[in-house]
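ok, trying the design again with the full structure, not the truncated one.
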């Protein structure tokens, strides 16, 4: 499916004859901007699949200091890549609240994170206004200005 989507996102006419999906000659318009493909999973197959694309998503259960676990496996799976410079390792950090937490994740090889700052301040039932306010607080508390 990933190869099919990649083919369809290219400009012009294409046809696809893969093991599981086939298409007649067709064109997807308008051609979308480049869409990065991040692959999740911890199996060897998933990591090899991620290495063929743009990045690897570690999973949703990551916590500050241990968030880099598994990163060596991603590097091993990606060893055939010419460079890791353009490869994203993405993880949600559910309890990172300090610069040190993010520095530990970076030291563990994480290149990008997802977080929901309102969970730290207002909780899961935060209103839109609270979420916006909490994102401002988060930026201030981490001194990102």
């Amino acid at each position: 499916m990933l190869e099919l989507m990649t083919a369809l996102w290219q400009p012009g006419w294409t046809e696809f004859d893969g093991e599981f999906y086939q298409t007649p000659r067709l064109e997807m318009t308008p051609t979308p901007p480049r869409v990065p493909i991040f692959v999740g999973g911890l199996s060897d197959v998933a990591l090899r699949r991620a290495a063929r694309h743009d990045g690897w998503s570690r999973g949703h259960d990551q916590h500050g200091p241990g968030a880099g676990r598994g990163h060596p496996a991603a590097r091993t799976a990606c060893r055939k890549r010419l460079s890791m410079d353009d490869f994203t390792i993405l993880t949600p950090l559910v309890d990172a609240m300090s610069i040190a937490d993010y520095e530990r994740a970076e030291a563990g090889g994480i290149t990008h994170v997802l977080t929901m700052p309102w969970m730290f301040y207002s909780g899961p039932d935060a209103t839109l206004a609270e979420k916006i306010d909490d994102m401002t607080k988060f930026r201030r508390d981490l001194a990102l200005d």
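Keeping the full-length input from now on. The first strand starts at residue 13 and ends at 17.
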